[in-house]
Each structure stands twice: as structure tokens, then as C-alpha cells.
Amino acid sequence: MENRQVATIDGNEAAAYVAYRVNEVCAIYPITPSSTMGELADQWSNEGKTNLWGDIPIIAEMQSEGGAAGAAHGALQTGALTTTFTASQGLMLMIPNMYKIAGELTSAVFHVAARSLAAQGLSIFGDHQDVMAVRTTGFAQLASGSVQEAHDMALIAQAATLEARVPFVHFFDGFRTSHEVNKITLLSDAEIRAMIDDELVRAHRQRGLGPDIPFMRGTAQNPDVYFQGRETVNPWYARTPEIVARKMREFGELTGRHYRLFEYHGDPEAQRVIILMGSGADTVRETVDWLRAHDAAVGVIQVHLYRPFSVEHLLAALPASTRAIAVLDRTKEPGAPGEPLYLDIVTTLTQAAADGSLPTATLPRIIGGRYGLSSKEFTPAMVKAVFDELDKAQPKNGFTVGINDDVSHTSLEVDPDFAIEPDTVVRALFYGLGADGTVGANKNTIKIIGEDPAFHAQGYFVYDSKKSGSQTISHLRFGPDPIRSSYLVQSANFIGCHQFNFLERTNVLEQAAQGATFLLNSPYSAEEVWGRLPRLIQQTIIERKLQFHVIDAYTVARDSGMGNRINTVMQTCFFALSGVLPKEAAIAKIKTAIQKTYGKKGEEVVRRNFEAVDNTLAQLHQVTVPAEVSSHLDLLAPVPPEAPAFVREVTAMMIAGKGDELPVSALPVDGTFPTATARWENRDISMYAPVWEPDLCIQCGNCSFVCPHSVIRAKFYNIANLHEAPAEFRHAPIDARGLPEVHYTLQVYLDNCTGCGLCVEVCPVRSKQDTTRKAINMQAKSGVLESERRNVEFFETLPYVEHERVDFSTVRGVQFLQPLFEFPGSCAGCGETPYVKLLSQLFGERLVVANATGCSSIYGGNLPTTPWSQNAAGKGPAWSNSLFEDNAEFGLGFRLTSDSQLATAERLLKELAPQLGEGYVQSILLAPQITESEIRAQRALVADLEQKLLAMDSETARHLLTVSDQLVRRSVWLIGGDGWAYDIGSSGLDHVLSMGRDINILVLDTEVYSNTGGQMSKSTPLAAVAKFATGGKRVPKKDLALQAISYGNVYVARVAMGANPQQTLLAFREAESYPGPSLILAYSHCIAHGINMQHGLLQQHRAVASGYWPLMRYNPEVRKSGENPFVLDSQRPRIAFKDYAYQELRYKMLSRTNPDEAEILINEAQEQVHQKWRIYERAGYQGKERRGVTDVHPDAGSQGQ
Amino acid sequence: MDLRTTYMGLELKNPVVASASPLSEKLDNFRRMEDAGAAAVVMFSLFEEQIKHENAAIEHLITSGSESYAESLSFFPEFEDYETGPDEYLNLLRRAAEAVDIPVIGSLNGITNEGWVDTARLMQDAGASGIELNAYYIPANLYLDGREVEQRYLDVLKAVKAAVSVPVALKLSPFFSATGNMARQFDEAGADALVLFNRFYQPDLDLEEMEVITDLKLSTPAEIRLPLLWIGVLHGRINASLAASTGVHSPLELIKYLLAGADAVMTTSGMLRNGIGFLGTLVEGLKDWMEARQYDSVAQLRGIMSQVNCLNPGAFERANYIKILENYKAQYE
To answer: Based on the domain organization, do B198 and B217 belong to the same domain?
Structure first.
């Protein structure tokens, strides 16, 4: 064990570390929570790191997990050592290939960060539903329960598969293990080398296809032999468990870490035993130790090798004294007599009882239960509840633990006060903002402490479901022994609150232990702060005798030149107060870590961080805690009392972080949730917000148009409405002739503003006296918040302008349309949401949305609230998300329903003509529905029809009533990002376009997989850096517009709101009215571009000005009038591509990492722009002649640039 | 014909020097400039503030939005190694110095003491044959007097001189109360050359966007008058070499500067406007002129029309200005 290298890393890195070294090919596709494994492999490959044999593995990012599995299969078939990393839906897409790979007895390991499956809702979090769904494929399944195990089992699996020829899924729990940072002992290359037999590697290679020894594999087989062929593999499966057991023994001899297929831990004379796999085993193990210390005869069997299931090894592991067993499955199999592991245990023991091989005297009682779905906490208290259940005369079978199932009454009672965290462990909780660097600092702290031989360290991080203003909670443990508590900190002896305003809504001290240290980042001094605390916080500090310290971290950070990054300041405070390491030594280590982390980022960054460390200690003060509670402040309610019942009773609990307490009965049975809920969640996340200047404003509507969070709204109204307006309510005469009594108000919803500043950027007006002032300006919110809240309240009472009075054709007009998509939790300044909001404004009342998984499905549909909203009449968009890969097909299904039901409605309507009147029926059937007023008229007609139908006693009428809403033209939109449209959903999208049905596709093109953290897609441009394109993408972006145009009957537009909002608006309206498939490619600036999001629109402008993103529309309808359907809407390139690109880190970074390559690629990219422009120009110049909307010179096409 | 000249202690094959410009951002261009006839290349200016700003910006943008949302804990690959600060500049300088036989001069732009000295030394280590301090300072602080401003220039110069062994040139602003005196002080402080003058930042206003424009317009031949004046005045009176910069758009300006006393003549705008081949045009133009006038060497003609050498030294001073005005009147009366 001596001189072993240790590292504090997460489970993903632990597994990938081994996988990289023992493979030649990695075929991958990003999916949470496994993406990191692929990203690391790509990074190492770029850094030139080699595998065991001195080669750099090839990393191939595919278009989907299906593609990754196919590529892996192909690489394996031709003899390469191949792996992939995936999870959840990704693993589902691999199933067909997994059957093949297993059927062909192929040595391979797939590493899986096990995750929930999308059922009633998607979840990115961990459980075993995915791996249980592939247990029939023929893959062996090896489970890890900790970061160390993820490292070790990755190697054991590889060693075993080479000998067994049975492919392996090696899995560990998503997030709980994949993202937990823990100190582990790293395998040396020599140890890895020793476990991998090159004879077996050569044998694998020789089984590969090759013309020198030709053979075929993958035949089609007939009934005569298929069955027998399927049975040929039995001996291989039969010997696999023993091979794995032997590899585990060899591994133990090499490393001192010993594993078994079924790992028993506990009392040798245990009466009650829990059997489970994954990270929960560590929690059970810890609880078993505690219970045994309190005289309980209990034990736990941790399953490592789940498939092939070794009856023999299980029976050997079970103590003969066992009288009751609880089998815990982290999965759900609705309708089954039990979950998979439970059934396997029952089968094994009953068969053993039948054949007399049972180790126990009698068949133990066996119960099964579910726990921990979607990373639901699994605590020692729950373990105890399970053991307690086993003691009952009639224990529950098919129980659940960790939830309150008040519907089926499956759940076990759990003692909330049962906590067994040892005092030798420092347990720290940190509440921070994503933007303040808290998590990064804590990861750094773990590394610092973990490097100390005297300490073990663990970190786990809980993130928000919002992307702007998101809250993070870090759970850190430090102690002398390896830390195997695989649950959140329950009783903290250090709590850091890095944002003062968290105290308003959250009881950050809920987990505070007696005498714990409480560190608060406070703008108030040690003397003043007490009076600013809510009552509950004061009370907890006094009752639990907390040591209370404050620091004004923002001031210290700013004074040290760190801006708003308070991470170093708060980290220094932790070391100063926690006493984990001696203060001086800790400070020295922080500085060493700073040098290491930031050294490559320049001396200046290092210097500023050092300064922050030094300045911190002088500004850290202990608060003298008064004896009495003095505050009258209560925690703010998560939602206002006027919110609807569901929002008050269910949504509010989730908002308050108490969703775990919701019983089963509170949740919808089929995943159906109300819309219009984001409006109740006033998040108050920005210190700054825009304030309108009525006197300067020209009422152009630009700010409202581009606002990504729908917080800027405009109304016009008769001045008579103003008599009840608050004194501060801002308004101005409307900028239109002949309407002296009409006023205009631009209202900012300050509580929901993220402070992105796009509105100010886009405002075209400047004060004549003070050119720094525009008609809308960012301002500190604190001074105006209260009055603006009153103004919003009044503004809400003013009616939205009737659609008939709105000019839908201008940006100015559209500002008066109510957004039916409001307050999304997307990144501040998001480039996608303005388009989505526009969609909701234009067509929201008759809109159904199919949303591909990705950013837009997260800010659109991640609980607790949704921005998809409703108007006063209760009409609004209906929304659903199926999967990532099938959104085009899913959305087409919406259309098929509409088309089908419309046909039914029309038929039934005609049948009722004798009763309704022929003229009346024809007026509905023949009504034009192109313009907004026509659609309004039809809506009124249909409403009238429905009243008539209700009054009729007719089966036909009742039938018609169920489909009559389809008589109003429905607007079907398919929304998704480029990952969907260009990659995983590409074939579906292409097929749907080819079908001619009236669907509209909006591609929010950020040119990377934004939601999973910036991986390359086929939309990623040449020369840009992205994950999986660390060295810059070498292939140009696919031109999806030209691809779609090739059909001839598809409406296609390429838009960029920041360059030409009017063209965007025109394209949306044309696409919607076009009675066939429409495709809009919308340039969406993104945080993954490495830009200051405030300048996102300017970047859009530059993208168009450089010719990189030509604005165009291709409208097949135009052809009917003999004109060119292709219209180029932007001018010839007038800035160099570089002048656009080098404003973004995604391009700029390459010039720092590889200047020569950067220069080559940027020049190639410029050439690409030229070439593409020539194509567009040629295609569009006739449009200039006939329609006069571009300034393209007719000869330009032949001249080039 | 001997075109050689000595500038800041460096022997140059001719007096034509490619001045700091975006053209020196590409390695290839160094070779092209050498092939076209440049006797030395001054690299584009490294702005101290820009380095600091860009490093901070990269750090900010890499971490923006990271560690906030469980699915996207970062948005960029982990870059183990990338160039920061002047690395990019120094690498280019190193490769340029290796690629060409002519001297490559590093250019530093700024006026604070902070960071300068180190960067100059790094340039020297990277292979710079000399350092040009492109020192300009707009004393917008109304409480800063002329003496303090002057002292700033001197302090920077002395600090850099003390730190490097390669020659150091100072590119000057024309706006000193006593430009000649300042030149002498710089000379005494150890400047190996003075470059006259810096066409320093002068903003414009965009009436459409109502914003201040910070671009730099190319020079015109008419602008040679001011540097010509001071080169003429300083030639032969200080030890430091003199380089003329500004307004060289044809061989005529080059020749005028040499006659006034320049040891080297720099061009940026002319090259940007006409391409790198313009350097050759200058050299050839000089040769043609010398041949026509039967000069054998640049040394023969350098400074023959400077104040100390010319027939009417008063032409460089105020008295002559009055005469010019009189002539002006005479023309139109």
C-alpha cells in the first residue's frame, strides 16, 4: 500500500481513468451524468496521453448513442478494444447493438453512470432503471458503489471481459457516485498492466474481421438453427462469475483492495440482512456498523456482479443465521411481482430450498422494496426503517422507503431524528450561487485537504433546476478514515451561507449541529448584522449555540480586483474557521492551489487571488450573539397566497426545497402539470434591472422584443384607466397620430428580471443631453423595487390590447401581444428564449409545442414551474417533451391528430347541416384562417357552434364536440436545439420535412450541445473550439437550410434577431402561414460561445455582417406567382469573419492553445464564408430583381468576393 | 550603391523599416517584408492593459455559467495549457526572429512602470534585436503637470534600459513643451534611438450611434512636416539614432526624412494601403533618386538638409514661419 498515488476525483473520472488506458477506441455521445467520461477521454487524447500499449485512443463523438453503439460494435467487430460511456436514454438507444455485441461474444465494457428513465417525466438523476432495462441483452453487469469502486471495477470488468468474452456493463450511480468527489487510491499503470493479459488482447484482435482470414458474422438465421445458436453461449455465461471472482482475487493481491461478487458485511450471525447494489450499499454498511454497535444482529450483501447471476456465490455469502432478508431495488418495474433483484433473490433462495442447498435452516422471509429513485436520498434512518420492518411479524413486501406513499401505502415510516454521522468527521454545508464560484472553491478545498495524508475528503454538490441565479448547496466531509457516507450531510458542524439574501427564503441552518460554526457573507457589519436576520435564523443561532462569523466578501473581492468572484474569500474563511488544517498551513496551501489553478491564466489573476486571501482574514469578524431573539422577520413565502391551489400546495413545496416531503397523492398520476406557474415564483435574482424613461422612449418595441425573460411588456390604453394608477406609474402619450387620449406604458417586471442588459443594448435612443442615457437603463433595483412592484400590479389590471388592434407585421406592433412564455429560468441573456417568446406572442392561443430534450425543454419544462403560460381567457400553448431523438416524429404526431380530427370534425359538421343550417356549416368550413382577424372570427364561430352542439341531443353533436376545437387552425411547432436537429434527430427531422404536412420547426441553433455543457454538434462551425473539438472543429457546419430547400416544398428561413428583428418576425409569420413543412434556423447566442451575454445581439449582428450567417427566406408559396422563392435578406459581408469570431472565446481560445492551427482554421473558415455566400447570392439574386428586399448586386455571384 | 545605415546600434541593410502594424501579427508576413526589402521589422505593439484585460476576460468567460447547473458544469474543454499574457506575442517574436535575417524589434505600448520591465526582458530573451517603447500618454488628469508627465517617460525609459542589454528606442509624442530638450534628456537617459512621432490615439465621434470611435486612420504624406521638422532640428545634436515615422507614402517622403537626418525611416500606413511590396518600392525609389543625383551611399546624403547642415538654418524655426506666411500672401495678392 505504500507510496500509492492518491487523488480526489469524481466517479466519472475514476472510471474513465481506467477505461482510457485499456481501450483503443471510444465511441461516445454526451448524456448526463456520464458526459464527463467522454469529455475526459477526449481531453486526454488531445493531450497525447496514451493507453497501456503506448497508443492514443481514438475518441469519436457520434450523432446519438445509437450511433455510438453502432460505431463501438463495428470497432469491436474489427478487433479494436472499444468502450463507450453513457446513461439512461442513451443506454436505451444502445440496446439493439448490445444484443448483437453479446450474441457475438465480444469482449467490451460499457461504463454507465446509471440514471432514471423518462417516464411520467424526465430525470437526469441517478437510479438503476436504465441498467435494469438492459439486463436481458446478454451483457454482464458489474456494479460499483463508490468512487474507489468505480475505479477498481472498471479494471476488473475489462480484465474479465477479455477472458470471458462476455461483454460488460460496468455501472455506478449517476450523480451520487459519478459526481461525488472522493479521495481514492489510484491504480498505477503497472497494476493495470498486470491485470490485462495481452494474449487475450491479441485473441480479441484476431477475432476481428479482416480479408486475410475472411469470414462472416451477422448472418440471418432460420427457425432451424436460430434457437440452437442462441444456446451456444451458455458455457461462456456459466464460467463468467468465476472469472470475475478470480480477477477480483488477483486485483486484491495486487492492490490490497479485496472484492467479491457478493460482498457480505456485518454480523457473522446476522439474522436480518439487506441485499442491494450501488452506492446505497455504503450507507447500509455504515448503518449496519452502528446497529451492531448497538447489539443488532444485522448485515448487508452488496451485489457487485449482477449478471450473470451466480447462485453459488450468493448462497456462499449469506450467513446461515439469516432469518429475514430485505432486497432493495433502486428501480421500478410497474406491474411486476417484484423488482428485478428481489425476484432474483427469491428465485435463488426458493430453488436452493427446493434442492437443499440453502445455507440457512429454513427459507428466510424475503421482502423487496424500492428506494432512491432519481437520486432520492437514502439515509441511515431509512436503512434502519428497513431493518425494523424485517423485525415485524408481517413486514411489507413491495415497500418503498424515502417517500410518503399515501396512495398505495407502500412506504415505511422513517425516524427523522435518527442520525449516525460520526463526530470524527467535519461536516460542512455551503449555500452559494452558481455564479459566485462556491462549488469550484469547495472542489478546490477538497483537493487541498485530500492531499493531506491525514485526511480523507468527500464532496457532493446539489444544483438548482434553473440556469440563471441558480443556487448550489455543497456537502463536504473531511475525516481521518475513508468517507463512505453516500448521502447528504444531515448534521453540519460548519455552515457557510455565501449570499445574504438566501436567508430571506431558506432556513440555511436547518442542518446545523449544536455548537456549529456559521459563516455568513454579509453586507452588514458584525455589529449590525443581527438586526437584519430573520427570526428563525436568530432563534437557531441562539438555541444551537452557533459560532457566528461574518465577512463582507463582495467588498473584499472587489477591493482585491476579483469583481464578484467571492470564492477565494469564502474558501479562506472556511479554512480560518473550520480548523481542519492549522490556519497558517491552510493559507499556504490555498495559495499553492491558487498558483496551480490560475498560474496558467496569468500572473495578474494569481496576484489578485493572493490579495483576496490576504485581505480576507482582516475582514472576518465574529458576531457577539445576543441572548434573545429580536427579529420580526419571517421567511418569505415561496408563492403568494393568491396563487392557485396546486401552486400553493404542491409547486410551492418544490420551490421551497421541500419537494421531498410531498406525498404520492400530491403528484399528478400521469405527469400532467398546469402551465402558467413561473409567474408565481418571484425569484428576485438580480441586483440590477432596467428602468424605463418615458420621455426618451420612441416606443419602438425593440427592448420588449429581445427580452429573453419576458419581463418587459407594453400596453396602450385610454388615459381614463390611469385614475387609479400609483403615483410612480410611468406612462407617455402613445407615439401615433390622432390618439390624444391614448397612453403607452413599458412595464418592467423587476422581480423576474435577470439583469442581462440586452434591452439596454438594443435601445436605439440616447438622451440629447446625456448620451450615456438611453430610453431604458440598468439601475440598482433596491431603490425602485417596491414602487415597481406596485406598478406591475397596476399594469396587470390594464387589459392587453385586443389582437385585432395589433399590427402583427412589425416589431413595434408585436410588443403589445401578451407573451405566453414568461420568466424562463434560462441563462441571463439567453439567445434562445426571445424566439420562443415571440412564438408564444404570435400564435400562443392556438399553439401546441413538441419540444426536444435540451435547454429549451429544461427552461420550458423542468419542475417546479413552467414559463409556458395562459392568457386571461385561459388559452395558451400546450407543451410536451417526448425524447431527444424523436421530437420531429413526436411533433408530426400532433399534426396527424389535428389532420385526422379536423377531417372528423368536418365530416360530422356536414352531417349536422340539416339541423345547423347549410349556410352556417359552410361558413365554418370555408372560413379563411390566414390573418389574425380571420382566426379570431373563426374562433368566435366555433365557440358559437359549440354552444349549439351542447344544446343538441345528438350522438353526432356530442362526438363533434370532442373535436370541434380543431376547426380553428392549430399551430403545430417543433422546437429544439441543434443537437436535436443536426445530430440525434436529424433523420426524423428530414423525414418529417419530406412528408409535406403542415408543421413548423424552430431550431434554436447555439451550434453546440448547450444543455449538456458545450459539446460539438454538426452545427458547430469550422475553427470553433468545443468539447470533443478541443483542437478546433475542422469540418464546416452542416447547411441545414440548403438541405431542406432541396425538397422544394419546405419553407426555410435563417434568422438572427440581433441582426434584423423585422426579418425574424416576417419569417415566423410566413412559416406559420405556409401550409406545409417549415423550418426556421434561429441564430441563438449562448453562454457556451464564451461571450459576455450582454453583447449577444451585437454578436448576432456581427455574424450576419461577416456573411457567416446570411439571413434568408425560401418560401415555396412565392413560386406560384412565378417569382424566385429564395430571398437573401442580408447584405454582402462587410466585416471579416475574424472580426466576428474573435469576439468569442470559442474561436479565440484556439489562438491561445494552438496559434498556428488557429490561423489555418480561421482562414479556412473565412474561405467557407466566401463560398457559402456565393451560393446564397446566386440562389437569391433574382429575388432582388423581383422583390426588392436585398441589396445584392446581380453580378456578385460570378465575381465572388 | 551602399544603402546601409546604423539605427539604434543595429546595422541595417537600408534605412527602410516596417513599423508596428497588424501585418506583423502573421509570421509569413515577416518573411514577405524581408523579401520586399525591409531592413528591420518593428512588431505590432503589445499593450500592457490589453494583456491584463484579455487574461481576465478569458478567465471570466471560461468560468461563466459553470458549476451552476447539474447538466452543464462547464462549457469549455479543460485547457491544460494555453498562452497567457505576452506568451502569444513572445512566441511569434521568437519564431519571427528565427525566420528572418533582419532585426526584429519588439514594441511595447504603455506608460505605467508596472509590468513593463519584465515584458521588455522577455522580448529580449525571445530574440528581439531591440525594444521600441511606444510610449504615449494622454494627460487627461488636470492635476498632472508637464514635469510629472515628462518624468514618467524618463522613468519608464530608464527602467527598461536597466533591464535589457539590447538597444531601446523611444517612440515619442510630439506634444512636449520643449521637444528638443526632452529629446536631449532621453538621449542622456540612454535612449538608443528616438522615433518621431507617435500618431497617438485621437478619437472621433460616430454621429449615427452617438458614440466615441476609437479607430485609427491611416496617415497622409502631408503629415511628414512635424517629424521632418524635429528630425531636422535634432540631427547631429544628440547621440541617439533618429527614426522618422509617419506619412511615408512614396520614396519622396523617405528621401526627405533621410535628408533631414533620419537614420531609419518607418512606414505603416503606406504598407497597409499598398501592400508589403511597398517596402520594395521605397528602396527602389531611393536607389533611383540616389543614382540620378549620383549619391553612392546613404551616409552621404543623411542629414545634409538638417538644421545644422542646411544653408538656411532659420528655416527650421519661427522666423521662417513668418516668411512663409508672407509668401503665402504674395501668391494671392
So the answer is: yes
